[in-house]
Specification:
Radius of gyration of chain B: 22 Å
Shape of chain B: globular
Strand content of chain B: 25-35%
Structural class of chain B: alpha/beta
Mean pLDDT of chain A: 92
Number of strands of chain A: 0
Number of helices of chain A: 3
Helix content of chain B: 10-25%
Oligomer: heterodimer
Strand content of chain A: under 5%
Strand order of the largest sheet of chain B: 2-1-10-9-11-12-13-14
Mean pLDDT of chain B: 90
Number of strands of chain B: 24
Chain lengths: ~70, ~400
Amino acid sequence: MKVLLDIINTVRENKGFAAVSLLEESHDLRSDLGFDSLDLAELTVRIEKETGVDVFADSFVFTVGDILKKIAK
Amino acid sequence: MASDLFYVSSQDTQYTYQDLLRLLACTDRIKKFCYAHSTYEVFTSIILSLIHNTEITLLDSDFSELELTNMGVVTSALNDTTDVKPIFYSDLSDLLHAIRSAGKWQIHLFTSGTTGIPKKIKHNLASISRSVRIAEKHKQSTWGFAYNPTHMAGIQVFFQALLNGNSIIDIFKLDRSTVFSRIEKYKITNISATPTYYRMLLPMDKTYQSIQRITSGGERFDPDLIEALQQGFPKAHFRNIYASTEAGAILESKSDVFIITDPALCKIEAGTLWIHKSVVGGFQLSGDWYDTGDLVSVLDSEPTHFRFVSRANEMINVGGYKVNPLEVESAINHHHGVIQSRVYGKQNRILGNVLIADVVTSEPISEKELRNHLSGLLQPHKIPRLINFVDEIITTRTGKVQRI
């Protein structure tokens, strides 16, 4: 979760948004974290760089919980 | 005509066709360049240039000064105007008649050129509205507008809607819940957008019965995506368009397989799709055919069935926007601490490709600092979303950067 929080905050700060201190599994990447398609793409390459997992490889992910499930596999 | 509503902006401001006619009747000065943030201003600038039979050049509102200079646009001329006599039209059909007779009108657009400098494409009314269908059955359509209004796809939707007197509802750059509430509120019947746009609408939690047609273009339209969209738009017919700034819409299909039905219009040679000069907008062509640079794989012949694979040249398709890596590298190298850079696309399920840069520096630079530097020079979709700082960049034997 800590790794994911850091990555999400990097993407948020890159687009001029404030960092978030807490992530919840139910957080929607678009409506709660404010990510557009370019940000989601950035999120996937940063997660892949850190964990080796392409979270969007076989399906669309919508929430923080969806990403955690993919990384845990 | 279904209603008098002409356009609803992203902030939900409504403009009627009556508002449009009033604006035309009191405008006595028009601009040569359209460099506007507001989609309504882009639309009205196009209409004003049409009724006054003059040229107009469309520029993306987020082009930086560097980008404009590279395109050969003199920034001091951006606000140049021409005095005109206001024209009063009694009704919409009067206006549409005037638009259809704009014989000398020309529109200039820019598209990412393969050499690093964007190239200018000229179109007249006949060439830009070649794929527009005017018919009684289209008069009831309401369009969801999901493209940049200064780009070819957006202009095509605009003309299709305007020439049929339809309402245009802005749904570009809005969050998905707002898009869905607009589909319901305005009973949108047609949407034309990129696959990236449609992917951002998923998941479809509800069904929207008003949607009759979903058109996609700019990237590969995956069968999985069509299937997911069908859940939410059960009454929609799906259509996949292959279009370019040079020629507008060329081919259409119901899936990701295209068929060449008119061999006089396009052909496949040396693995890429070629378009005949008769449908290409005004720019220098060396022969009768124009190479689109899009690599295809042929599935069947007579008639030719094919699927798009990737690009033969170095352009990278980022969510439907073609990005030239040379232009991005040049902006990165502009930073005083950068020695060399390499920009490439990495396949990505959301955007098609995401831009990555490998950079060699002479001093420590943070990724954030380099991104800030780029945000003043390039449009957002041209900025690499991941920057790797590396010790060296592999070049080919001729000294060119290898892009894999």
